[in-house]
């Protein structure tokens, strides 16, 4: 290893990047932009569902029942309409996603001890939102039933309302959410985005940087010179690893500053893990660039090699644990999962080296393997 | 690198039985050659001849399957073996400046190569200064490489290849796409390196007329070496004589000759015929005999050049595709119409304060072949864009095919045909489908299209290939298809932008046969740009462009005559020590001193006095003089002389 030659290569590469405005923007603006776009756009919280009410009963009890929806922060009340027929155009237009229909004689039946059926219409076009809406409806309805029962017990047996409520619901669930107390999906998403962006941007830059030389023919300067393979790979990729490390700091700042994600873990551990991670993802770009010949092909290949596994197998959308065994196996093959755990642990759980060293080690092995494969694939005297 | 080369007799490069395949396709096979130390060895051949594969293999940047390559006695059979000689080697790949870094400045590029090659920091400055001065790039050290002209990029590439003082340089087509002045500069720099550092060079080129620059060379075609040796020795492999003449009517004369002699072409107003195995006098007699009854002028024999030999070699080895059988005769009923095809008057085009074309005026008549030559960036493309109605002129006026350029751009487009080097044929369509498509694009009536397509296919020698895919055709034939597509709507004017770049000499001859037929028989006006100076000889008139202006506009013969009057005779000096002799002659103040292999070219007002002077100078230093012979100047000489004079004038201002 001749350090002067590595420095010459890295220096040349850095100058090229700085002079090429488009490339420079690609290097620093795109990762931050991705973080902003996804961070604001990809909220998984279901709130403010617009809905309307048809109240055929117009009694005190029906008003009481519908107000439970109107007052909820999960629903946005858009008004009463006269009949079910008027709901259809509203649902069709997506002006409301949910409607509740209270039948006639709602109060009369309930007071007489007869059951009453309340119809709720939910827009099922997005199953995730629909099932969440359904859960809200069931919860609000159960609470209403519980109170009716408690009031009946209280009247019938002459006990205090609190005692009656306890009798009506012998088993209660007591919930406490750990690490993300308010269950803000932004927190986990912003954290996972650090993983996603650092998985996508570094390979992209690297692959373009190397294939650019193949495409133009300047790679022959390397082939024809006395630079060794290792020196070339090190010198060429050093600037890209550097850029990606800076980007990891920018993304960290965006996550904590802009999205308000708390950082509870060990900053040094997280920083070092990030360095290992970007070395690893840069290696993916390097590998892609050695397989293809054109910049377009390099971009396609890195998309396939990075975005798909990091979205599907990182735990970003679907928890790894709830995947089938085959999916879990595949998830372990990609580096995204390990860094997701490191990022979530460092940001939200406040754990560090002690708990996460295994994941960091996995990433380091992954990076080493990628670089070794690339080293073996790169030849200064190729067949074509 | 700086130390003395070991005193082994091993040649710089020895190639034996070399072969390279890509997938199953053989690109090169059975190549043997040997480059001696201190010589400039040439590989000459058209695109696809296998030059690049051979050069990359020699430079140790391409693995190969067959044969062996030795460099300085070291066998290059593995990546590790190749590494051992790379320090003594400089390689410049094909493509003008493509291996340089466009965003970096001239100096930064050089510095990078120097550091990459481990040149000691103390030496970098001195070497850089010397090479920059030699290439006259010293005024542009801070300029980003992407803003250099083609010739400057090529020189910078050379500097970067030389910065570690290699013993052998391998340069892949360094002069392709470079204007003649820069090309001359390039050869002068190489001569100086040869003189000062005793460098060895392996250089490939597609220009046959550069053959004289090499000590020895190999002619390549279709992945094989046709012949190797000194230029004279290669010419001697195909005994015969060339006869030149002017004949009236030319078309009939050419037809009569071609009926019995395979190697004949028209070059502008003249005919040029190669007569196999004939002494000059016998050859003249043969040709005269064939042309009985026609009016002949200036009938004489001349020595064959390398291109003649190349074509003759291919012909003898039966590597030539057969000629198209019969050309369609004239008389498809088009009236000659307005005799003036293109009239340009003070045409000017500005781009943001930069004047790309400056008051260009010229006239092209129907039936004329009008050549436009000039360096990259001289304004040729802008001028053609204005003439074809793509770009409106900023000032001046022009009429093309009777339509005013300012008001009838659409009419112009309908009346002209256009083919460029980068002509976009649809590679996945067959020959016939391409022709049909163009017929429809140009609105040729359906009932007439079939017949016209048959006509142009016959004219361009594509009959029998109608079902082949355009992408699978050899380059020369693909260019003929492009020409055929430009002809389907019977244009009266044809614009051809470097149509023969990279095409082999035989392909170029076929192409020109067709153009001459179009001009002479069908009275089509043809405006063509080319980088091949030998090709410019075919034009009836030649306009030379420089910095947006037309600086000369005359028939080739008149341009050469003017050169004789201004600069004097072109003399070829043969000596036993050309490098030393060259330096002495330069000092003595001779104009245009340039090295051509073992010979020196220079200009002299009076050949007689100059010869005596040269004898005195060389005798004084004990340099043997084999002879001083006058040579006819080429168009390249004209071009270089004119442009150099203009550039010197600009610098004085």
Automatic annotation (TrEMBL), chain A:
Keyword Glycosyltransferase (UniProt): no
The ABC transmembrane type-2 domain sits at 137-381
Q: Which domain of life is it from?
A: Bacteria
Keywords assigned by UniProt, alphabetized: Cell membrane, Membrane, Transmembrane, Transmembrane helix, Transport
* Its membrane topology: Multi-pass membrane protein
Q: Which residues cross the membrane?
A: 21-42, 186-205, 237-261, 268-292, 298-321, 357-378
Q: Where is this chain primarily localised?
A: membrane
Keyword Membrane listed? The answer is yes
- What name does UniProt use for this protein? ABC transporter permease
Source organism per UniProt: Aromatoleum toluolicum
Upper lineage: Bacteria, Pseudomonadati, Pseudomonadota, Betaproteobacteria, Rhodocyclales
From TrEMBL, chain B:
Q: Transport as a keyword?
A: no
Name the Gene3D superfamilies for this protein: P-loop containing nucleotide triphosphate hydrolases (3.40.50.300)
Top-level lineage group = Bacteria
What are the residue boundaries of the ABC transporter domain, all occurrences included? 13-247, 342-572
**Which GO terms label this protein's molecular function in UniProt?**
ATP binding
Protein name listed in UniProt: ATP-binding cassette domain-containing protein
InterPro entries associated with the record: AAA+_ATPase, ABC_transporter-like_ATP-bd, ABC_transporter-like_CS, P-loop_NTPase
UniProtKB keywords: ATP-binding, Cell membrane, Membrane, Nucleotide-binding
Q: Give the species this sequence originates from.
A: Aromatoleum toluolicum
